[in-house]
Every structure is written in structure tokens, then in C-alpha cells.
Design goal:
By secondary structure, the chain is of the alpha/beta class. It has one domain. Helices cover 25% and strands 10% of the residues. The chain has seven helices and seven strands. Strands 1, 2, 3, 4, 5, 6 and 7 form a seven-stranded mixed β-sheet that branches. Strand 3, helix 4 (163-175) and strand 4 form a beta-alpha-beta unit. Helix 4 packs across helix 7. It is globular. The protein starts with 40 loop residues before the first helix and ends in a 48-residue tail after the last helix.
């Protein structure tokens, strides 16, 4: 983020709960009826009066509309009795579509955004209970041959984002060849229980302010921080990014993780090394680029560190 890291707290762990979300499978539309050209009205009456149609069966699980009568169609009864009735499968599909829409809205309620959409800022909760769900499972070790830092990923309860979803993004960032593992020594491994070296915690602005404030940092409801073993990620920044990354929220999330984990690793803030050059990941880019280009990685594709002048 934006503040100098403080001494690490003793390793800890936090049990979590897994959230699940489901989505109904959408059925195909109802069957269309084929009307035989040239069939006279009289023939229809004859058939309705007593001739049985072969190869026509009752839909599975659906009783006949007329007890004891031979069905003349998939809906049962005569053509006159059902000509204005909706197809049963079409009606069923309508119910399923409505249910599917309702489930999707419920699933998106926490942030007010669908996949690939930015949420309405007013829909993002500004405070929460201060309790967290921990992403279950774990990941493989990534990085160099030196120390391995274990971490857990947690999401504050009630924000509507599954902890496992956030964990996937964090794992991707920390495993990237342009990340902190490019030094050839640092390694990371995500765990879900027991002791861990640090925690990545996605939380509402109010909760970030509270936790960071315990160490004397003022995050002002806007920014992220690293304090002790906690990498605190502001939900507002996670969902909206900043003006410089407004069209690339995914990249900004990588900047958050790399910047705050960089503080945990002992790196301080840096300035822009020169106009047109990539901004160091330890630069407080939220405060301006000062002539530099946006960049979210501590190393370039060739393994060279992207740095700038150290700031006091």
C-alpha cells in the first residue's frame, strides 16, 4: 500500500468457513409442434372421437388432463380445449429462467456486480463484522530454493465474495515469474490451517482502518496496508482499483498484493526512476505516477528488478 510495514506478529491461524454458490443449469426451450398440412377439420374430430394416435406418450411425471381419455397431444385433450394453453415445457422453462435470474442476483448481491462488471460504489459495504472466512485447501510451493513463506487467504464475512475465489487470484499473483519469487530465493505456499507466516485479508474499509489503526496507520477508508503479519486489502480498492487502473482492475489487484507483500518482505517505498519508465511496485502509485508508466510487478520479464529511489 501506502505505509511502511511494522514488525511481524507471531504466526497465527484463523479457521474459516467455505461459501458455496450454485447456479441452475438452463434447460433447452420447449418443443415445437408440427402441424400436418392438409389435415381437414373433420378428420381431427374423427380422431378426437375415437381413433388412437400411435407413438404419442404422456410427458414423464405429468398426469393426463382428462382422466381416462387417450391423449391426442403432449398436453392431453382435444385441440379445441388446448389451443390457447401454453406448452407445458415452455411454461416450465419460464419458471426456471425466473429462478435462474433470482439465483444470479442473490449470488451478486454482495458487490452488486456481475462477472466482468464494476460494481456500483454505493453497493460496496463500508464496514463489516470483523470476522473472516479462510479459503480452504492449499497450494503447491512456488518460487526459489530458499525460504518458503506460508500464508492464508481470508475474506471478511458478509462481503459476498468467496474466499476461494480471492485465494485463486492471490496464488496466481505470487506464482508469477515477474513476482517476488524472481529473486531465486523466496518461495510461497498457501495453507488453510495451522501456523502461517502471513495472512492476506480482504476486508471492508472500516475493518481495514480498525486493524491498521491499531499500529498507528491511517488508511482513511481508502487504502491498503501491511501491519504485523497481516496484508490488509481494502474491498473498495479490490473492486474499483484507482484512476490509473480503472480499465484493468485485475492488474491493480496484482499491484495491491505485490506492494503489501513487498512491505512484509522488508521493502520500503520507492519513487519514480524517470519519466516514461515503469513505476516500481513499491511506489505509492495511488498518489500519482509522476511521469512513470503503470507497472504491477517487482521484476520485468527478463528477471531484472524494477526499482526507483528509496523514499524516507
Amino acid at each position: 500500500m501506502n505505509e511502511r510495514r511494522r514488525p511481524n506478529l507471531p504466526p497465527t491461524s484463523a479457521p474459516g468457513r467455505r461459501r458455496r454458490g450454485g447456479r441452475a443449469r438452463r434447460r433447452r426451450g420447449g418443443r415445437s409442434r408440427l402441424l400436418w398440412p392438409g389435415l381437414a377439420a373433420g378428420a381431427v374430430l374423427v380422431l378426437a372421437g375415437g381413433l388412437a394416435l400411435k407413438g404419442v406418450t404422456e410427458p414423464a411425471g405429468r398426469p393426463s388432463d382428462m382422466a381416462g381419455a387417450s391423449p391426442s397431444s403432449e398436453t392431453g385433450g382435444t385441440e379445441e380445449a388446448r389451443k390457447d394453453a401454453p406448452e407445458p415445457e415452455q411454461a416450465e422453462d419460464g419458471k426456471k429462467d425466473a429462478k435462474e435470474k433470482e439465483e444470479k442476483e442473490t449470488e451478486e448481491k454482495g458487490t452488486g456486480a456481475g462477472a466482468g462488471e464494476k460494481p456500483d460504489p454505493g453497493s460496496i459495504p463500508s464496514s463489516g463484522p470483523g470476522t473472516f472466512a479462510t479459503a480452504d485447501g492449499g497450494g503447491d510451493r512456488v518460487g526459489g530454493s530458499g525460504r518458503t513463506l506460508t500464508y492464508v487467504v481470508q475474506v471478511e464475512d458478509g462481503v459476498g465474495i468467496p474466499a476461494r475465489e480471492v485465494a485463486t487470484e492471490v496464488e496466481r499473483v505470487l506464482a508469477d515469474e515477474r513476482g517476488w519469487t524472481a529473486d531465486g530465493k523466496t518461495g510461497f505456499r498457501r495453507v488453510s490451517g495451522g501456523a502461517s507466516d502471513f495472512r492476506v485479508r480482504l476486508a471492508t474499509a472500516g475493518t481495514v482502518d480498525d486493524i491498521c489503526g491499531q499500529y498507528g496507520l491511517d488508511t482513511g477508508g481508502e487504502v491498503n496496508c501491511n501491519v504485523g503479519q497481516d496484508v490488509m486489502v481494502n474491498l473498495k480498492r479490490w473492486l474499483l482499483a484507482t484512476q490509473y487502473y480503472a480499465d484493468d482492475v485485475t492488474s491493480y489487484r496484482a499491484l495491491i498484493i505485490n506492494h503489501e507483500v513487498g512491505h512484509f518482505l522488508g521493502h520500503g517505498h520507492e519513487g519514480c526512476p524517470g519519466a516514461g519508465r515503469p513505476a516500481p511496485v513499491m511506489m505509492q502509485q495511488i498518489k500519482g505516477l509522476h511521469g512513470c508508466r503503470t507497472n504491477v510487478w517487482p521484476y520485468d520479464a527478463d528477471g531484472r528488478p524494477i526499482t526507483g529511489p528509496a523514499l524516507g
